[in-house]
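Case study B.
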Amino acid sequence: MSQKESSAQRERSFYAKTRSNVAKLVPDKLSPSVRTLNEDDIEKAISDEDANRKAYHSLCYSLLRIILLHDKWRIAYVDPSQFEDNVFGMALRDISSVKPDEVPENIAFIAQNDNNRNGNKMILFCFDDQGSDLLRKVSYEVKKLDDGKFDNICVMVVPSPEIMQDKRRVSKADEWRRGFFLCFPEIRKKSEHLNEKEYLQLCVCTSNPIADFEERSGILTETVEVLDNIAVGQESRSHYKLRFRTSHSFNITPGQFIMTATSSHRHEEAVSRPTSLDNLKSSFIIKPTSYLKRPFGIHRAFYPHFDLPYLKRLSLPPELATVLHTVFPNQFEIFYKVLENGVGTNELTKLKRGDKVQIIGPLGKRLHMRELREQGFEEIHVIGGGVGMAPLIFMVQALRYYSYPVKAFIGTEKIGMLKYKCSRDGLDNCDGLDNLDNTFSEEPRDATIYVDDLIDAGVDPADIYVSSTVLENHDWTIPKDNLYEGVVTGQYNVYLQSRQRERRQKKQRQKKILAFACGPTGMMKALTLITAEFGIKQKVLMEKRMACGIGVCLSCVCETKNGEGGESKYSRVCTDGPIFDAAEIVW
Amino acid sequence: MVKNPLEVALRNLRLKTPLMTASGTAGHLDELTALKDYRTVIIDALGAFVTKGVTLKPKRGNPELRVVETRTGLLNSIGLQNSGVEIFLKQELPRTLQYELPIIVNISADTAQEFEELAAYLIDNDAGRIISGIEINVSCPNLSEGGAIFGTNPYAVENVVKAVKRRVGDEVLVITKLTPNVTDITQPARAAIAGGTDVLSMINTLRGIAIDVDAGKPFLGNVYGGLSGPAIKPVGVYMVYECFGKITECKNKTVPIIGIGGISTWRDALEYIMAGATAVGIGTAWFVDPGIFGEVKKGLDKYLAKNEKTIDELVGKAHYC
Ligand SMILES: Cc1cc2nc3c(=O)[nH]c(=O)nc-3n(C[C@H](O)[C@H](O)[C@H](O)COP(=O)(O)OP(=O)(O)OC[C@H]3O[C@@H](n4cnc5c(N)ncnc54)[C@H](O)[C@@H]3O)c2cc1C
Ligand SMILES: Cc1cc2nc3c(=O)[nH]c(=O)nc-3n(C[C@H](O)[C@H](O)[C@H](O)COP(=O)(O)O)c2cc1C
Ligand code: FES
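Model:
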């Protein structure tokens, strides 16, 4: 074959491909005519970059409009220079309630909600295709406009999940203050889901679901820097909170966990140092040292530039929230219990600020928050027994980002176990990474673990419940009525009963509720009876002894009901879980 | 062309590095693709991949608790949980093909006859074209029946190896994995050679028990477990040294040895090689650090470059000083 022929062939296949791509984008009625386009038409259409860009903006706008209207938000402003009028249902005429000179530069359109009493009032949308500097420029403008009131949020629309993934990385995110990302395929899917009829006038159905690009981000081995490691609890030093910083983006979802080395020298040194008497003394005679890494759930994650006061006020439109993405977190806390004879957890307590430890993660199945809404859940309950509450705090953080109403039930043996001296302002923000040392020198203040964390995450104090076998005096930030003497399952049962009474009196419909539970096996099992009685779907976070954490050794099994022929089988907590449907477990 | 100093051969099977996974510690390879840097780990550092143990029928595995950490070691009693050879061939093995790595299938059974059936099943279903070797686990100390009995009894070892070899022929390598739970390792080793094994691998885990003094009962659901990790390394090195030193076929490398047990650094790997191993398997250490294969390879590379040696030249070096 001569070279000329092959290039002509390439060209033909290019036009054919373009034609079929375009046909996929336009509504059914139009697509036959697209297929008959001749090469000149295609040439002309694709060579006009500006018109193409604007048409793409118009399509995004029209799809986002479906989502926003569903959330009862209205379009308050559109910048005509960024859109192509009269395509994809785009009409520029009727929109102008915000004055153009009040709008920061580069913003393409604005959505507004007048009924939002305490949360954000405006969502500013921009498109990322105007140069690499846009993140920084828009961030600066929006921050200026907002002036610390946290009234507005900014959303950047990007064409593909891959580009979004890249921008969400902490390095890029440094330029993106308090903003969210959206990617086109997800907008498309969501609007199709919400209003198929209107969607069909704009696009043809998406045949292939959005590739789950996050899944591909992979398990990393990383050496992280310890930021602090402080004891929690009044009397005994039996619980610790360890905070660390990762250098790379760490894309971890609630329920997932990490495995961490428990001391800072690498295992290589630990096991292969030439044997001298001193080494023998330090590593063998006195105390055993840990060899394997230990699994821990993420207790809290910190997102660069998402200050806690901002998070508290955040109140996103629910449907939009399920396709919004934040930057990746780069600071994490684990909250751990020091076991009396625990080799690894005792070693962990020795870690100090500045130490480096190796971790592996994220491990475990990903739970996508947006799926919960697709499954129709209207409210989420988290129920934690003891240290089991720790990973549920991260869960609540994420649920809040996705605008879910949350109620939290904390079970603790003794109230004193929750109290600690916070060595740094719990409201510190990640904007101030450089100021870390300043915040450190602040006077420690009294703090209550879990309760303060939940409030920081934006949960209403009235939605936080605490139970303990002994109710001591404590300066509570939550209503007195939310305290209970006894175990957490008891409190949850009482709560559900009174809620049911109230609902029946008012003849209200029962909400579709999902409960996440984590704690001792007995507690999680007891909860299954309660949730079954009240028609609540329950998921549990399981915990088993692990060796590898990546699904290859089969150490971490728990018995589940989904085996061959209705029999039970052993499932791996580390890769089939740790989140399971409570009904799936053989208790 | 300069020879790759890391390249070794197990009979006619060439390995680009002497590093292999240890059976049961790296799943069926496809799990590893979840690791961000799996390509560098799998494609670069490994010479061959050994699957987890496969049995004729699906196996449920042992009750909880299945692992407990001991000083620099891991005591496990997984009980060979696997989905059986049929699903293994249909669903699990095909996924390993894309890596272009020699695959060795580890097999377990309760009787010599079952071993033979299992080998026959693999060969009859054309697995011979995909896999490079079959590793006979005559040493699993976890099973309540079979397992240890084969490995500790030279006649049983010879029978099993013969039965498998009869079915496999020369199509793929037959490797016999020995148990260290014997007084004289050369006896089962010689028996395996008499049965026709092409390669020996050693060691499997050492039998052990750990007791929870607070509860006053053994930790493991199965009571007994197999000990692995750094704690068992000297035992493994000793057994490789014995076989290489005392068995002619091993010394002249007609029956090469794969050294396994407690390797977690390149120095550990080299210990095995100098004791007489041609290749080495790494298991438990990989749980501690998935980067281990890359690190060991790097260490060996450096050492070989510095000393201007190849792995081949170092095999059994400790015997010639
Ligand atoms: C997915 C997952 C998430 C987890 N998240 C958290 C968390 O957020 N916070 C937290 O404090 N812990 C968490 N754990 C439990 C934690 O991993 C163990 O407590 C820790 O590994 C014990 O290590 P060690 O070296 O101190 O104990 P070891 O030295 O291994 O064991 C010492 C003693 O503790 C007992 N023991 C060991 N492991 C457990 C266990 N898992 N449960 C009960 N007793 C045990 C042993 O029987 C032994 O008597 C999680 C576990 C999993 C699997
Ligand atoms: C969790 C686990 C599972 C194992 N499964 C098998 C198996 O299925 N078949 C087998 O021959 N050996 C099995 N082994 C033994 C290892 O392959 C290896 O011989 C032993 O662990 C010593 O090596 P190491 O110290 O590097 O782990 C297993 C070991 C462990 C820790
Ligand atoms: S810890 Fe190895 S399979 Fe779960």
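Chain B touches chain A through 44 residues (CB under 8 Å). The remaining cases will be described in the next quarterly update.
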